[in-house]
Amino acid sequence: MLPTSFFLLISPVQSLTYSSSLAPSSLVCKMNVSENAQKLHSKMLEYAPSHLFDQEQLQEMVNITSPVEFMTLAQELVNSNLVKLMKQGDILKFQAKAVAEANKISAMSNDEVMVYSYIEASGREGIWTKTIRAKTNLHQHVVLKCLKSLESQRFIKSIKSVKNPTRKIYMLYNLQPSIEVTGGPWFTDNELDTEFIDSLLTVIWRYIASKTFPYAFQPPSSNVNVVQSSYPANHTGYVNLDAAMEFITSNKITNIELGIGDIRSLCEVLVYDDKLELINGTMDTYKATWQSVLEAGYGRSYLEEGSKYADMKSVFENPSFSIFENNSVVVQEEDEGAEDMVYLDSWIHQ
């Protein structure tokens, strides 16, 4: 319920009580305020719209020491809907309203103001019509009439919540619903858009895989080492979240606005699917797994091409030679076919 009386804390030992006339009930009052009231309102507008002032701050702004004089200014501004009274704990606070907003409220009926105030207080979460009825204690017919009037003037709008799709929720017309209400970019018409998610997962995986295995998505060629299609272990040019975000934005993959958190969520899904790995020692840099490349139908030509090269296994299994011994000599085997064996030095320099 809206309060019927407001208290100004003048000093620790003195308080004044505003009667219900301070509440926005005198809505038909024209915005005729004194010069001092205009000056105070202008100074309040220099701060952020959400800024809350206490009485001492406002008195200092216009250099007023008399509580009675300040009460008169506050009365003018509240009656003209230029100032909104709010309670923060047990302390009364003042919030400036723009002139356009004040004019809008002044044109409403008392019931409409009451309904509008609760919708405004709900912010980007919105408020259910049943909750409005409970808070205002107005008849359902009156509430619906107020909502229809406010909506027709584009002061409010109805939205749908993914958590409660059957409820009719209202919020201010100029606000965007929060992610908790809309479900974020992954929901379309209050339903999980699996097709959109899958397409983004594919795009991100393909981009990261191309930066992990640069030759895996093209046929083997003479100038490509087919047995080494990945980067060396000390490579640092893998894809981080910022790079993935830039790729999606610059290539206009989607017209839905995505944030870094959304890209991170997609990458985490790919990690759970064993398609990506988080680079050790990093928080947001990823590389693709070779298995995911093979499962997607790429990279197999490199396996086939690599098998055409000479099998070096017999060389390393030669018991007469060890790479861990200095100045070791390879004993030439007399077995059949030994003359066809190619050793490392001659193989490199051939």
TrEMBL record:
One cellular-component annotation, GO: nucleoplasm
Entry keywords, A to Z: DNA-directed RNA polymerase, Nucleus, Signal, Transcription
UniProt KW Signal keyword: yes
InterPro entries linked to this entry: RNA_pol_Rpc34, RNA_pol_Rpc34-like, WH-like_DNA-bd_sf, WH_DNA-bd_sf
Domain of life: Eukaryota
Signal peptide: 1-15
GO BP term, example: transcription by RNA polymerase III
Entry-linked Pfam families: RNA_pol_Rpc34
SUPFAM superfamilies the record matches: Winged helix' DNA-binding domain
Subcellular localization, as worded in the UniProt entry: Nucleus
Gene3D superfamilies: Winged helix-like DNA-binding domain superfamily/Winged helix DNA-binding domain (1.10.10.10)
Protein family per UniProt: Belongs to the eukaryotic RPC34/RPC39 RNA polymerase subunit family.
Function noted in UniProt: DNA-dependent RNA polymerase catalyzes the transcription of DNA into RNA using the four ribonucleoside triphosphates as substrates. Specific peripheric component of RNA polymerase III which synthesizes small RNAs, such as 5S rRNA and tRNAs.
The name this protein goes by in its record: DNA-directed RNA polymerase III subunit RPC6
Source organism per UniProt: [Candida] railenensis
